[in-house]
Structure formats: structure tokens, C-alpha cells
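Need residues for this backbone.
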């Protein structure tokens, strides 16, 4: 088959070490977007490049989730952070339509609203998604029924702006535990992150910056390998500063890939 695209997403929400692991695949993108990404944030530096574990892998310096074909990303300052003007709302989008997904979640009995919401999205037949919306500032964890409604409303607002069904969107939140998302600020900025969607490396940087919390650097990388004569690219970003244990703790991340792979194989290797 032809090369496709895929996304691999790991989310750990701030309340009780909640984790989400998602993979996505779909048809190959027809080409690159021409949109120029104008908004840049230079207030946080990039982490060192990832060193591939094998000589078969080629490191792509200064690249990220937009390196594989078929992915757009953006990051904007929505005013969700209490003490920083860094971007705090991120979006990863598959413009060619919903793609297959698989997920592995935390085993905790108590989950943040975005975890529960994403579980429900991935529990539907077909496991297809088009977008991942990520906010920093508030974890939307331990927020009860109001936080759950905020998650539903966030997906609905995103679906309206992107023109996709609400159940094709996954949600990730990171920040202060026990605080609801500042929905007014978020909803006001969703059109901005949609407008700024781009496949540029600058867009990947803004996206990776937007998901950081106490991080001293933003983490973004991409690698490439040839399989059966076809070039396969993986791009990724994550957040977390001393947040890896236990079970990735409150680390959050997204990995994208442009290989056409069976959904069950994504799930098996998640």
C-alpha cells in the first residue's frame, strides 16, 4: 500500500498520573500547505536533538510533529497561563480527514476529564480522529461534572472551527490540578490556532512550546528511516520536567508518522 500518516500520542494528566497513548493513520497527504506561520515564541529554548538508536535512523534537526507528510500544527497564546505569555494552546490536525487510532490509557480509577473524553472517542467503532487539542495552564482534573462539560464544550467548539465531528477530536490538558479550563479564553483562541495551522517547522515549535509547563526547554524532534524502498518519517513532541515516574507521571506528548500501518499493529506496539 501507499504511505499513509499516523499520530502517536501520549498524555499524562496532572491529577493522578493519567496517561493516554494513541496512534493514528490514514491516506498520504497530497502536498504541503502554503500558509506561512508568522507567530513565533523565542522565550524558551529547544532541548538537544534526539540521537537515533540505530544507524538506520536519520535524525532531522530542528523538526517536530509536522515533519511527516499529512500533519499540520500550531500553537498560540490564549491567556491560559497565570504567569507567562508563552503559547498555551496547541493543535495537531490531519486535514485529509479522520484517520484510524488506537489507545492505551492509565489504569488509575480516577481520571481527568480529557482522559475520559479521549477514552470515549477511541472506544467508538473504527477509532478515527482528525485532531488533537492541547491546553496548558489548567489540567481540568478533579473538576467534577463542570470540568467534564468543559471538555465536551471544548471539543464542540473545535469541531465547529475545523468543520469536523466533535467525536473526531482528542483532548489533552496540563497545568494546575483542580482548576477548570478558562473556557472563555480558550474558545476565543481556538479560531487562532485553526487559522495558524501549518506544516512548517516553526509551527511545530510553537505547538511544542504551547504544551510545556515547568519545562526549562521545549522537546521536539523527528527521525527518518527507509523501509522497503520507502522513506518513513516520525515526528514528536513532549512536555514534562522531572515528571517521568511512575509510569510517565504527568508527561504528555505527541508522535506523528507517515507510514501506512494496520490499526491493530499500532495498538499492539503502543
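Answer:
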Amino acid at each position: 500500500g501507499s504511505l499513509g500518516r499516523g499520530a502517536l500520542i501520549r498524555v499524562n494528566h496532572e491529577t493522578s498520573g493519567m496517561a493516554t497513548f494513541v496512534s493514528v493513520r490514514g491516506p498520504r497527504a497530497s502536498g504541503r500547505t502554503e500558509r506561512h506561520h508568522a507567530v513565533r515564541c523565542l522565550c524558551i529554548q529547544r532541548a538537544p536533538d534526539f540521537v537515533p538508536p540505530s544507524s538506520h535512523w536519520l535524525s532531522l534537526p530542528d523538526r517536530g510533529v509536522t515533519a511527516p507528510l499529512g500533519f499540520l500544527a500550531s500553537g498560540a497564546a490564549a491567556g491560559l497561563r497565570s504567569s507567562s505569555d508563552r503559547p498555551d494552546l496547541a493543535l495537531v490536525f490531519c486535514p485529509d480527514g479522520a484517520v484510524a487510532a488506537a489507545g492505551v490509557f492509565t489504569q488509575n480509577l480516577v481520571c481527568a476529564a480529557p482522559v475520559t473524553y479521549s477514552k470515549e472517542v477511541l472506544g467508538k467503532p473504527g477509532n478515527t480522529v482528525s485532531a488533537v487539542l492541547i491546553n496548558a495552564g489548567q489540567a481540568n482534573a478533579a473538576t467534577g461534572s463542570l470540568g467534564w462539560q468543559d471538555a465536551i464544550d471544548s471539543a464542540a467548539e473545535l469541531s465547529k472551527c475545523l468543520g469536523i465531528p466533535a467525536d473526531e477530536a482528542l483532548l489533552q490538558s496540563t497545568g494546575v490540578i483542580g482548576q477548570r479550563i478558562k473556557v472563555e479564553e480558550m474558545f476565543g483562541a481556538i479560531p487562532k490556532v485553526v487559522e495558524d495551522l501549518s506544516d512548517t517547522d516553526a509551527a511545530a515549535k510553537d505547538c511544542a512550546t504551547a504544551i510545556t509547563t515547568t519545562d526549562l526547554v521545549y522537546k521536539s524532534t523527528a527521525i527518518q528511516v527507509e523501509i522497503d524502498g520507502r522513506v518513513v518519517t516520525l515526528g514528536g513532541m513532549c512536555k514534562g520536567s522531572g515528571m517521568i515516574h511512575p509510569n510517565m507521571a504527568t508527561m504528555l506528548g505527541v508522535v506523528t508518522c507517515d507510514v501506512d500501518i494496520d490499526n491493530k499493529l499500532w495498538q499492539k506496539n503502543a
